[in-house]
Amino acid sequence: MNVLWVFAHPEPRSLNGALRDHGTATLRRHGHRVRHSDLYAMRWNPVAGPGDVAHDPREPLRLGPATEHAAATGALAPDIRAEHAKLAWADTLILQFPLWWHGMPAILKGWFDRVFVQGYAFGVHDEQGRARRYGDGGLAGHRALVVTTAGARATGLGPRGVHGDAEDVLFPLLHGTLFYSGMDVLPPLVITGADRAGPAERADAAARLDDRLTALPAAAPIPYRPELGGGYDDDLVLRADLAPGRTDLAVHRT
Q1: For the domain bounded by 2-221, which CATH number is listed?
Q2: Residue 120: per-residue pLDDT
Q3: Which residue, 18, 66, 152, 225, could crosslink 231 as a Cys pair with Cβ 3.0–4.6 Å?
């Protein structure tokens, strides 16, 4: 595989940094190729705006259409085009970050804001003019794995935990971003108790990461329902006969 590893942690000597280095070595030992986007080391600019496109400041900025036109004409900012080149090379995306305030760090959110632009990751259509999203899209054919650490205990991120189930917490990223843009999304690897991890816990985390990376080429993705698979009506509401009476996020799985 060609793997793009996007890393969003400010300290390379952290548990996250150790796992990134360990995982990279594991992938290469199995014959895979790895490239990195270390966002803090790159001093990635997370703020989308007129600097991303060749925008005439005398005109109002409509960022979506402007980035779509710039992507089509090669006029996107060089740092965005560099990330697009990495994604074009990769067939697998690994996203690694600490879970802050039930979400990703701002620098990684800004990577998505600037890189997953209209006409590239979303806003694409099929021959019938239908939107390609939720199971199809600009990044169809890619696999994605989220690796995240949390200070919380595993029980607190379980099905009845006070923080919410880990996959529900990550649903906006897993389903609303990665699956939306067409990727096959693998179950996330969530390393809990990261703030208190000693040598034994670090070794366990590395072993869990090894297991996931070894299985990465053939691992089954989360079975989300595709938008055009017949499960949703014209208002994009799940059909009443599917998961009747339920409203939890798992209804969007087959």
Answers
A1: 3.40.50.360
A2: 96
A3: 225
